[in-house]
Write a structure and sequence with these properties.
The complex is a heterodimer of chains A (about 110) and B (about 120). By secondary structure, chain A is mostly beta strands. Chain A has strands at about 5, 10-15, 20-25, 40-45, 50-55, 60, 65-70, 75-80, 90-95, 100, 105-110. In chain A, the strands form 2 sheets. In chain A, strands 2, 4, 5, 6, 9, 10 and 11 form a 7-stranded mixed beta sheet that branches. A 4-stranded antiparallel beta sheet of chain A has the order 1-3-8-7, with no helix packed on it. In chain A, strand 5 (about 50-55) and strand 6 (about 60) form a beta hairpin. In chain B, strand 7 and strand 8 form a beta hairpin. The radius of gyration of chain B is 13 Å and the shape is globular. In chain B, about 40% of the residues are buried. The mean pLDDT of chain B is about 95. In chain B, the strands form 2 sheets. In chain B, strands 2, 4, 5, 6, 9, 10 and 11 form a 7-stranded mixed beta sheet that branches. Chain B has about 120 residues and is mainly beta. Chain B has strands at about 1-5, 10, 15-25, 35-40, 45-50, 55-60, 65-70, 75-80, 90-100, 105-110, 115-119. Classes of the chains: A mainly beta (about 110), B mainly beta (about 120). The interface of A and B includes residues 61 and 105 of A.
Chain lengths: ~110, ~120
């Protein structure tokens, strides 16, 4: 099974400042089609998870452009260019190459 | 696109429960669908997936042999039959939509979730 490891697990942020979350996989997520099967989700308090980023770097529909995803192979990063209050919640990465496994989640909260 | 789960509740260990997910706003048969669960306060765990045609299914090892996923494309409905339930199956179960017909790859739409408690 592919294991997903996120860091940090808790991230206090200041509105207007950037933030970054790392996700590492135990195996490469690069498919033979050239895409990395890595997605990022945000679960706001009391809500269902929502897709933010798919195929490592593609923003889902309606996601603000302050969110960006990068990385390839086994190392991936989610960046928020300027954090807003509505960005608080738990961010999870997920691999979709071999079945599906999620990272532990990173809780983002306002300082 | 909306996904609406139903069927959750309280069940005794060893019992059975059937979850349903009603999908609207999409051409249902053209997308793989699945179930993801979340133990309150903990992480997300993929449970099962089914392709758009309904003839290919996959399961997490933790539920294989106990859970069965199915779909009725004429009714835009996804189902999860859960048998031999255990305490560690207690979770919120989300119905999820994939972005492709044969495999989800990722989940671009999530339902609101339905709670299953095994006790």
């Amino acid at each position: 099974d592919i294991v997903m490891t996120q860091s940090p697990l808790s991230l206090p942020v200041t509105p207007g400042e950037p933030a970054s979350i790392s996700c590492r996989s135990s195996q490469s997520l690069l498919h033979r089609n050239g895409y990395n099967y890595l997605a990022w989700y945000l679960q706001r308090p009391g809500q269902s998870p929502q897709l933010l980023i798919y195929l490592a770097s593609h923003r889902a529909s309606g996601v603000p452009d302050r969110f960006s995803g990068s990385g390839s192979g086994t190392d991936f990063t989610l960046k928020i260019s300027r954090v807003e209050a509505e960005d608080v919640g738990v961010y999870s990465c997920m691999q979709g190459l071999q079945s599906y496994t999620f990272g532990q989640g990173t809780k983002v909260e306002i300082k | 696109v909306q996904l609406l789960e139903s069927g959750g509740g309280l069940v005794q260990p060893g019992g059975s429960l059937r979850l349903s997910c009603a999908a609207s706003g999409l051409t249902f048969s053209t997308y793989a669908m699945g179930w993801v669960r979340q133990t309150p306060g903990k992480g997300l765990e993929w449970v099962s997936s089914i392709n758009g045609g309904g003839n290919t299914t996959s399961y997490a090892d933790s539920v294989k042999g106990r859970f069965t996923v199915s779909r009725d494309n004429s009714k835009n409905t996804l189902s999860l039959q859960m048998n031999s339930l255990r305490a560690d199956d207690t979770s919120i179960y989300y119905c999820v939509k994939g972005r492709f017909p044969e495999r989800c790859v990722d989940f671009d739409v999530w339902g609101q979730g339905t709670m299953v408690t095994v006790s």
